[in-house]
Design the sequence.
């Protein structure tokens, strides 16, 4: 009896599930692109922004939430019936999976981005193409590639024990630095991260230096630091905004500032600089609440710009394009 | 946390695949110890999904000194930031702007008169280094002491005012070993 009652539903399910398998009417789909004309995309928007109707406050119909709540006859379900994202991630095979972090109900959801940073916009529209164009080196087609410089040393097979040994590193240093590749459209140097660190030896005597340092760091970088750490790394839009702020607002206010030292850099494309304690008040965030800080305890900081460049030369080119001058002897 | 799909396979095929043919040999005489990756009980520590801790950020309108404005996300609660000194009115970023250069305005000729009378030893270090080649023959004509431009101490630039001190010391009758003959000529 049960099966008889279930029969039509099962049949409907079967039909609906295989509906995509049924043959279509012929001649509806054409997969050739011979006759189709590309869509015309006008360069300028045809609709003027001035033609949109002006929205006044009276025209907006807002339901009064208080009135709506009082007129409600039934009770709303309790808060605990709401869906809460799981607190723990228990692996890919667990039946309860947390929602992705882009979901607003996820625990690790962070809203944003709220704006496109100005320096990032400049980079994408101007700086990247400029760097690529200025760094172009023409090689006539058909030119054979230059053989790569061999940096690992071979073993001379003077002893039978040297057979199949891995090659030795360069003399004097056991680390191979990355090779600088010529800039093309795939590897235009870009800012990857900004690392800010404060060195507070005075905190051994007075722990308040760490508190002040963290407050300054949080206000200028926009991220929380760990509880006892006065260093942080910022990525993405925050890094762009920090660099923009530092270049355009902070560096010009420093007295006798000439630029970055020409010898800076760790030879793998990371450029560093430092700010004195008296320079920190040039940040707009510190300046806005400067009277709330104990001014004697505001520390300086060291900043490292981590770029995607593989050499200091390329990183320096990026920094110059961003508006950072260099002084002194340039060491690549 | 690479893949969260339940259907996704784990990276290492040996960790957890309960129905894979890899661990069919457990039914044979050899039984894998429980601590090996081939164990039947999947054990994985749960990872706490932390809520992001971030300071409140406001949208702030920044006005540069040339009047251009843009918005930034900042932790400062002020709605607008007007900059008085930035890259738009700084000589380092605008090397061609004459108004930003630190040029000496001497319309009344007072500075020139002062230099004619007292020499250029008062000038700051960088200026004396720049202007010595032009100024030296002029001083020689006027009879002003030319020694300060010719001595290597001034070319170093560090002790532009040092000749005043040494000139003062020359008048004193003590310490004849310190006084240089060049300074002695000046007095």
Sequence:
């Amino acid at each position: 009896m049960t099966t008889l009652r279930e029969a039509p539903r099962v049949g409907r399910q079967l039909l609906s599930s295989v509906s995509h398998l049924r043959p279509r009417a012929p001649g509806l789909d054409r997969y050739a692109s011979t006759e189709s004309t590309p869509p015309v995309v006008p360069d300028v928007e045809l609709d003027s922004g001035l033609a949109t109707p002006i929205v006044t406050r009276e025209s907006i119909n807002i339901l009064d939430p208080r009135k709506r709540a009082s007129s409600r006859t039934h009770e709303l379900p309790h808060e605990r019936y709401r869906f809460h994202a799981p607190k723990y991630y228990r692996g890919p095979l667990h039946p309860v999976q947390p929602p992705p972090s882009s979901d607003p109900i996820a625990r690790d959801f962070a809203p944003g981005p709220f704006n496109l940073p100005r320096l990032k916009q400049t980079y994408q529209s101007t700086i990247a193409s400029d760097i690529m164009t200025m760094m172009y080196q023409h090689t006539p087609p058909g030119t054979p590639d230059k053989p790569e410089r061999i940096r690992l040393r071979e073993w001379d097979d003077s002893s039978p024990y040297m057979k199949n040994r891995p090659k030795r590193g360069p003399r004097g240093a056991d680390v191979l630095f990355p090779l600088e590749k010529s800039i093309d459209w795939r590897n235009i140097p870009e800012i990857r991260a900004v690392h800010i660190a404060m060195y507070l030896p005075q905190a051994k005597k007075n722990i308040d230096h760490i508190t002040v340092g963290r407050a300054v760091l949080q206000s200028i970088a926009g991220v929380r630091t760990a509880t006892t750490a006065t260093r942080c790394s910022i990525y993405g839009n925050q890094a762009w905004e920090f660099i923009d702020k530092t270049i355009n607002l902070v560096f010009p206010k420093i007295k006798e500032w000439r630029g970055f030292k020409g010898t800076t850099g760790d030879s793998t494309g990371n450029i560093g600089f430092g700010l004195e304690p008296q320079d920190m008040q040039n940040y707009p965030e510190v300046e806005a609440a400067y009277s709330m800080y104990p001014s004697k305890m505001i520390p300086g900081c060291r900043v490292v710009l981590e770029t995607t460049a593989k050499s200091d030369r390329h990183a320096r080119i990026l920094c110059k394009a961003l508006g950072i001058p260099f002084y002194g002897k340039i060491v690549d | 946390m690479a893949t969260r799909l339940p259907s996704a396979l784990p990276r290492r095929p040996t960790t957890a695949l309960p129905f894979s043919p890899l661990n069919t040999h457990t039914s044979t005489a050899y039984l894998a110890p429980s601590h090996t990756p081939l164990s039947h009980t999947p054990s994985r520590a749960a990872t706490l999904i932390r809520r992001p801790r971030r300071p409140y950020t406001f949208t702030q309108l920044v006005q540069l000194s040339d009047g251009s404005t843009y918005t930034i996300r900042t932790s400062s609660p002020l709605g607008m930031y007007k900059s008085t000194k930035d890259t738009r009115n700084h000589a380092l970023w605008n090397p061609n702007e004459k108004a930003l250069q630190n040029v000496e305005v001497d319309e009344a000729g007072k500075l020139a008169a002062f230099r004619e009378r007292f020499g250029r030893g008062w000038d700051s270090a960088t200026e004396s280094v720049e202007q010595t080649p032009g100024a030296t023959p002029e001083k020689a004509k006027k009879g002003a002491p030319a020694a300060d431009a010719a001595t290597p101490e001034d070319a170093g630039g560090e002790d532009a005012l040092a000749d005043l001190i040494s000139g003062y010391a020359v008048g004193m009758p003590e310490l004849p070993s310190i006084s240089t003959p060049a300074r002695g000529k000046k007095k």
In short: Strands of chain A lie at 88-89, 191-197, 231-235, 260-261, 270-275, 301-307, 326-327. Chain A has seven helices and seven strands. Residues 118-134 of chain A form the longest helix (17 residues).
